[in-house]
Amino acid sequence: MSKCGQEKRKKVLEFQNVTFSYKDKQQTESTPILQRVNTAIYEREFITIIGASGSGKSTLFRLITGLENPDEGHILLNGEAEEHRLGKVGYMPQQDLLLPWRTIQENAALPIELKRVRKEEAYKRVLPLLEEFGLEGMENRFPHELSGGMRQRVSFLRATLSGSNILLLDEPFSALDAITRLSMQEWLMEQWEKQKTTVVFITHDVNEALFLSDRIFVFGEKPIRTLQEVDVPLGRPRSLKDLNQPSLIELKDQLLEQLRGKVMG
Amino acid sequence: MNNRKGSLSAGLFILAFLIIWEAAARAVNMIFILPPPTGIIEKLWELKGPLLIEHLPVTLSTIIIGLVISILLGVGIAVWMSVSPSAEKAIYPIIISSQMIPIIALAPIFVLWFGYSIWSKVVVTVLITFFPITVNTYDGLRSGSQELKELMLTMGAGKKEIFFKLLVPSALPHFYSGLKVAVTLSVIGAAIGEWLGAQAGLGYFSRRMMTQFDGAAVFAPIVLLSLIGIILFVIVKWIENKSLKWRKSS
Lengths: 265, 250
Ligand SMILES: Nc1ncnc2c1ncn2[C@@H]1O[C@H](COP(=O)(O)OP(=O)(O)OP(=O)(O)O)[C@@H](O)[C@H]1O
Ligand SMILES: [Mg+2]
Fold this sequence. Notes:
The complex is a heterodimer.
Chain A: E1 11-20, E2 34-42, E3 46-51, H1 57-65, E4 72-77, E5 80-81, E6 90-92, H2 104-108, H3 110-113, H4 119-132, H5 148-160, E7 166-170, H6 178-195, E8 198-202, H7 206-212, E9 215-219, E10 228-231, H8 246-264
Parallel strand pairs in A: 3-8, 3-9, 6-7, 7-8
Antiparallel strand pairs in A: 1-2, 1-4, 4-5, 9-10
Chain B: H1 2-28, H2 37-46, H3 48-83, H4 85-98, H5 103-114, H6 118-142, H7 146-154, H8 159-196, H9 202-211, H10 215-243, H11 245-248
Helix pairs in contact in B: 2-10, 3-4, 3-6, 3-8, 3-9, 5-6, 6-8, 8-9, 8-10, 9-10
The structure holds adenosine-5'-triphosphate (ATP) and magnesium ion.
């Protein structure tokens, strides 16, 4: 929390002593994934989460969205303890999860449609965005006719249309080539600056994490007790060249070391 | 391409079958037991008046009414079971055991209840056809993916929206599979119903001709019954392709 003035910024998301474990069929609790975790994410922050596979990153998102509830503790959205968080944050799951019977346009419009907007209106709003995402001409195709990267972009677009001030993205660009990935990152930065959203972003790519975020959370061994945070010492706007600064290369090594330590340990 | 090849070989197979039948019938030469295909077609032409005007409409309306009731009943029960676990526990075993009842043995009771009216045949048709519709639709309603459901929940979808935007589209292909089985069974159901007690209908006519040892006239209405089955099947297939466009191109 080195950034000055952060304390005065509004907390968008807060974990208070959150403990969580998945229950198996006999309702016996297995080892917890989170144990008395406290953390806060502030308005207009860009947070990236990195960590080994199976360390609980997606689980954190399931808790924030309200698909799971903490065994103990509270999760606060925009300063209020919310028991019913479903429908209050934008969420892009790890798999693209498009509805196979809906066209690309209809898929992207789903969150708008669920807000009781008329279908025609929702479809009309989506159309220009499809173009922006490099999906022009695809609006009437079905998901199985698209490449994996295209489907991921539809899923990403759909998440941004939730209308919420919190956007959770679970490895949104993992299926994209380097060039498309870059343009999607730029688009995300632009939207993030324009729309005043708070973004929490899961990735396995340390470079991506450093380029995009204000703070990086490193997920270590289970159970997670405290989130290890790393501040990214870069101003904005950023360019990819900034990642070549000696201090950042050092930071990158340190992060990789941290991750590797987790895998070894 | 493959499809065309398939129907070509099916056509050849049927042709071969008919030729063998024709040859065998001529060799046996007992027209009242084994009429040749050409004899059946001749008879069909000869009887076209009474068959098409008097008997076909009766059987066809039995089939259509039976199917409509089956669809309403089957889909209704399937939806009810899918939204209420206690209904599922209570009804599912009943539905399964309803298929153990020898319907032909029960049919005289339907004649007692409904007389020789169309309804005794409709009941038989419904009893035979509602099962595949109910079971398939129910399985379809449960086939909606858990992940998609969770995703829709995070978008704030309610029960109703999940039902109409996720469960119904997931169930549709299963529903059509059930319906395709049901339309072929409906023809059998109507024919059985008519054998057991009727004053008109293709099944009734076929049976009456049996008592007169007119082999060709027994087969003639059966040919029409099969045609009804095939046409109904093709119609359902066509509707299925129309409404499941997203699947066709896969
Ligand atoms: N629905 C579930 N029921 C029971 N256990 C689960 C469930 N989902 C995940 N887990 C377990 O919880 C742990 C954390 O899973 P999670 O999906 O959060 O990992 P992750 O950090 O997102 O991994 P990855 O990088 O591979 O996506 C894993 O050990 C996993 O087996
Ligand atoms: Mg994950």
